Amino acid sequence: MNRIPEFGNDFPSSMSQAQSYSNAIRTPLIRMFLEHIPDLAGLATAADLCSGEGDYADALSEAYPELVINAYDTSADMISIGEAREPKPSVTRFNKDVLTLDGDFDFIYCTYSLHHFEDPLKFWEKVKSLSHVGTKVFVVDLRRPVDETSLENILKATPMEIGDSTFMEDFRNSLKSAYTIEEVQSQLASVGLGYLEVVQCDIHGIEIKGEIH
Ligand SMILES: C[S@@+](CC[C@H](N)C(=O)[O-])C[C@H]1O[C@@H](n2cnc3c(N)ncnc32)[C@H](O)[C@@H]1O
To answer: Which residue minimizes the CA distance to atom 14 of ligand 1?
Structure first.
């Protein structure tokens, strides 16, 4: 299937679209994230790139209370939904484009957002610039299905109660705009990160993980 780019930085384009995303049931994905990330014991700092409302950051802070977590997102609506959640002392939300960030983190992660980058090499270059030798990296995103039939099979296998019709439409569009495993491997090779592992993690997702050399 050819890639059809989604909204870029314009997603979510309204508070109601942000709310629809926020209302969707992501608990199983957050559980999988916590199970699949590396051991972070002893690490001091983490960056959540494209954090949305920051529910992954909040869950991570419960698993690792000593970790200082900065969560960055361009959507003021997503940030404000997140700031209405019960505050976690170690999580700070920033309304900021990740491509403009400076800093140095022990753990860098990004969930379901790589496909929003029209130039993914800029994203991977940013991951490198925010890292030092030993930084742990974990990126999970959707994987573009091979054809319409696979796309429909994924949608059929997704429980109806997971989100409203706006969310399901966004999910369909996100699948079409996601990168394939081969495309991600090629992106990583282009920026000297070809040693990171790229694996399929579930029916619709891929994970990119490893430690910066
Ligand atoms: C599909 S949502 C994922 C949110 C969250 N990571 C999750 O898994 O629930 C994509 C998010 O990426 C954000 N985003 C897209 N481009 C961005 C950029 N350049 N810098 C920061 N945030 C960005 C959007 O505002 C949106 O909240």
So the answer is: 50
